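just leaving the lab so this will be short. below you get a single protein, a line of residues and a line of whole numbers that encode the local backbone shape. id like you to explain what the token line says about the fold, in plain words if possible. thanks a lot i owe you, the record is right below:

…
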Amino acid sequence: MIANLDTECKKTSLSHNVSFNLQFLKILNITTKKARNKRKCDKNGLYKKQELIKYLKTELLTSTTHGVPYFVKDNIHYLEKLFWVGSFIICVVLAILLLNLQFLRFIAAPTVMSVEMNYFDWNISYPAITLCPLYKSDVPSFKLNIMKTYNETGLSIEGYLWAISQAALDTLEYMDLSAPDDVVALIHPKEYATTAALLFRKFQNTWLATNTNWSITVDAAMTEMGMCHVINSNVAIYDEPHYLPDFVFSSSWKTATAATHVKKNIELSIFEADFFTEIKNYSNVYKVFIHSPEEVTTSTTSSFGVDVEGIIEFGLSVWSSRISDALRYMPRFLRKCRFSHEPISERYPIYSHSHCMMECRIKLIKKLCGCLPHFYKPLDHERICYISELKCVLKHRREIVTLQISKETLQKFNYDKDLPRISRDSACLSTCDLDLYYKDKEDFEPKKGLNILEIKITSFPKVRVLRDIIFDIYDIVLRSGGVINLCIGSSIISIMEIIIAILKYCVYFLIKILQSMENRVLTMFYKMKK
């Protein structure tokens, strides 16, 4: 029995040994197979890398870019290779510097001024004329409002009403900007502009005539000089306050969009150069501003005063500039000017240099005083200044007009970045199609009891300035090709060869990465399945 037990134990031990040996051999076989596969993969990877390096070497050897084949040649010394690599890098840096200088020149000064002399094909704009009388109110209407208010409330509003109707950027020091609270409450600031417009003297048809009896526009517009009459203007209508009796506050302004902007000014050809306007007995004392029909009048626009009896004849010379068709479709940073259909704010649907300067003054006034004077066109969200608040505008008037803030004001506002240090901070571009008018001659003939002003263009311009582009994108491409060919002797085909070689190299690595990611995902999937 004991012998049988020993025999069974030996058989059991032998079977365990055989099973262990089989498992060991199986594990050893799997390990050997994995090692063999790994060596095979390593050999394949090494082989592919060698093939890739060989491919790149072949591409560089056959490259038509000068200096590149020396990088991979086997039969030259490594010092010579180092020399060619350094020389190539220096040439590339030199090419980049030359291209950068050329591009900066293209951005900074791409245009040139030339002249045109085919004046028989031109039309020039007859100028807009702004008439600003010294006393703006219609005397009967002014007295009637004073008496009506006094009878209803027992309050005298003569000084307050006078300040509202006469207030302008250049006359604030002559106004009484202080009024009792009960008087101030009678007219809301939103009504200031329309009140001034209602009191403004109406333009009589007998005041204006032309030698051809052509129809010419006259608008009563609010300007920096208060209410004025503007003749032959395309944009004065946007500054015209009008009365809306159904509203709680009757303040409103003529609004329009760029689509409604219509040119209504008189255009003259060389055969109509003798056209003139005659303004007769407009006022005893008034200022005359001559400007483009697309511009607005500001307090810094050149003007001349009329305060004598007689016949005054003004002859004007015209300086015109236009933009070429090639430059017209270039971006703004190249043409260095703006078209009239490129406004900078919602206040006006068109652009001009004077509109831009006015917008800058408005922003500065709102920053300094927190409100907007009623002689500027307001937007819906802007608060109109009370008459007493115009003292702030008077205090900072010099800074507002020059757009240059003093050190004291900068300190008061903690050197706010929005405050302009110099007038150039406004960055107002000129208009692409521009007409400037200069007084050429002046004749005066005394006539007692008569006040006549004649304005005409003395001579039709025979020369016009044309803003044109020096070189365009095509020239930049050609010059850039010359620089690259000079520095590294490369053409477009040579550059394409290098780009394609780099792209192939990148695509290869991208495929390897994707394959590696795919293998990892599959491995994780099998593990999760098991």
Observations:
- DSSP finds 14 helices and 14 strands in the chain.
